[in-house]
Amino acid sequence: MKLKSIPFIIYCCLSLSAITSLAQDKQHPNVIVIITDDQGYGDLGATGNPHVKTPVIDRFSRENIRFNNFYVSPVCAPTRSSLMTGRYSLRTGIRDTYNGGAIMASNEVTIAEMLKQVNYKTGVFGKWHLGDNYPSRPSDQGFDESLIHLSGGMGQVGDITTYFKGNTSYFDPVLWHNNEKKQFKGYCSDIFADQAIQFIESNKDAPFFCYLAFNAPHTPLQVPETYYQQYKDINPESGFDNDNKPFPKMTEKDKEGARKVYAMVSNIDDNIGKLLKKLDALAIADNTLIIFMTDNGPQQTRYVGGMRGLKGNVYQGGVRVPFYIKLPDTLNRNKDIETTSAHIDIMPTIAELCHVELPKNKKIDGKSLLPLMLDENVDWANRSLFFYWTRRYPELYNNIALLKGHHKLVGHTNYNASVFDFELFDLKKDPYEQNNIVLDHKIIATNLKKEIDKTYNELITSENLINQPRIIVGSKSENPVYLNRNDAGGQRGIWAQEDIYGKWKVTIKKGHYNIKFKFIKPVKPNGKMYLETNTLVKQMLNVKEETDVIEMKNVFLPDMDCDLIPFYAHGSKNSLPFWVEMKKMD
Predict the structure, then answer these.
(1) Which domains does the chain have, with CATH numbers?
(2) Single pTM value for the model
(3) Which residue(s) pair with 386 in the sheet?
(4) Least buried of 42, 288, 331, 381, by fewest C-beta within 10 Å?
(5) How would you list the strands of the sheet with 407-412, edge to edge?
């Protein structure tokens, strides 16, 4: 609303604060970021897939701004931390999707915290994957309302409230609403979308930031039958004969997986449709910034626009995703932008559009995309983007890449490899990364390798990576604390194994604790339960019967930073608990 349109008598009666609110309306548009999980570039009608039905997203892409060379990290948590902070994930402490490496440092400033500076209401619905415990939960990082599942996915080992539901984990789940367990009815994507819509409706009169992070179509591939029926008879390999793009060979398992993924994506499309209709009904669509994107490439083999690689890989198929943005109405336009852009650009873009300062004393790796959208004269030709993915920590020259201009250097080689052991691609001439030209362009490759070295060495010395974020135990902000397998370090690849070495990095507040150790299967009697915290070792001998829960009561622990190491010793086996519940009693 413009002030000059207000009748004079009413205008005179307005308080100064009301006038200020009206004047700032367009300065602080609503913000909605929609991100899906493991939906690849090719899982939309808009990107050339003849099978998947996504009329809402396709129309959204046609009517708004399409960034056609948009990049993310190869896997979930790194992408989400970069989106939230405008920084490469290693700066934030995020180095993995589990193995204790998916906890973002609490000193990071998120989009939600940034927007709180100008009184935005903030809500997250769906997948967080940046820490399940204090001080890294959404509520600790700027969100007023949160409805999330735990860890990296529903049905995964870290999500203690859905794991044991097995192949029904996406239906009627127990979720965490504002840090409290709550039972919901229905399918997870419907629940997250409905709760996001309720949040929007409740905050329609104030600027809001809604982060709708669907956990679909991530595995396990569970979908309502009505959606599956739309795809049960398709052949996902067909329909691409005239595409002239490389297409992977699909097994029968791949084909069935694609059918379920497409069904899950159609469900998401319907839910986005409901959200957009609500914005129209509330008459706030014109003053709302909306982003749609995905977090990485597909996990399973299927159409990915001809690109090479899948989730987890630094080839294009793992890191290039669709990105569509609707600007507030006064700025909106329909156009294609080919300039290279990335997840790290989202926070700076939102900051500029919402007229709010970026975090101070933090190196922001991203740039605002607004000048590109407004056709301002900017030169991004020499911009570089760094990619990597290996478990635990980056491995020098293994699954690592640097993109600069239209040249991309990819390493799947040894730590001491020469430049000729790399692959160099000219994406302008070879968008599908089929022709390695490193032998013919040594100087270009050498310069890109030097930049990889510089970026790698800078990122691995990040303060939040060296001093990994710790879970705080015994705080009034979270009691009890549940330590789950997603956040357990120790041996590589801790998942659902029974006999494996694991530990949690924690800060313990002095006090007496009741501690429960939950195991995947009942442990045998006559063993010994151990709890190690630095030099303090607590042990309990009297485990007399088979049980899947062992409890130590009234355990005194002093103030300390430590690796918390629990295990049940029986014979030559040491079993790691599936999760640990620690409740401070004083």
Answers:
(1) 27-373 (3.40.720.10), 384-465 (3.30.1120.10), 471-584 (2.60.120.260)
(2) 0.94
(3) 402
(4) 381
(5) 384-388, 398-404, 407-412, 423-426
